[in-house]
Amino acid sequence: MGSASRKVAGLLWILLLLTLLSCGHKRSPQSVPGPIPRSQRVTDGVSSWYGKEFNGRRTANGEVFDMNGMTAAHRTLPLGTTVKVTNLDNGKSQQLVINDRGPFIRGRDLDCSYGAAKALGFAGAGLARVRIEVVEEAKERPKSMPTPGEVLVAGQGAPEKVLDASFTVQVGAFMNETNALKFREKMQQQFGDAYVIRFNEFYRVRVGHIPTEEGADNLRQQVQTTGVEGFVTRND
What is the CATH number of domain 150-234? Predict the structure, then answer.
């Protein structure tokens, strides 16, 4: 082999080595949800409110909940999204920021802070028919660290890997850790990828890391065939 050929061969080996090294250190992309579908930018539903019993506690995005602030909890909208909420019973409207997850009660779609419910005129009634319109969509990204008080109790991976902003089905919330772990085992056997996240005093049992809300809803329907009521929410 001539000198020129040896140099070319040597360069090719170096390039190959560099390629292999870069592949070995390349981080796999995290799950980042796409934009809010047009069909979900304006929705009608029922809103409840929460206040004193949660005042001062951490919300899903890590903020301290202010019962008098203009915020709300939603199961799937990206945290930080600004919405216009209109009380369909009296016509009052208010812009709110989504900073928490919930409500996890069947038949309810939004959980306003007490201050927001007061501004919308249903703090006394407790519930209201509302229209939820997305004003400004937040670009939600996976958290580098879990929210204070949020701990992965059971399941595979570190909390920052589990809480990747993908969609999931929450199948239960327990005050007792042992009960949550037993239920998680049952869900793991039936559906796989089941885990428990402790948030404040609750142990939340969830199934799946699904890239789309539609896919997560399909999983929810599968879960429902076993007699378990679940809700689609976010892994955050």
Answer: 3.30.70.1070
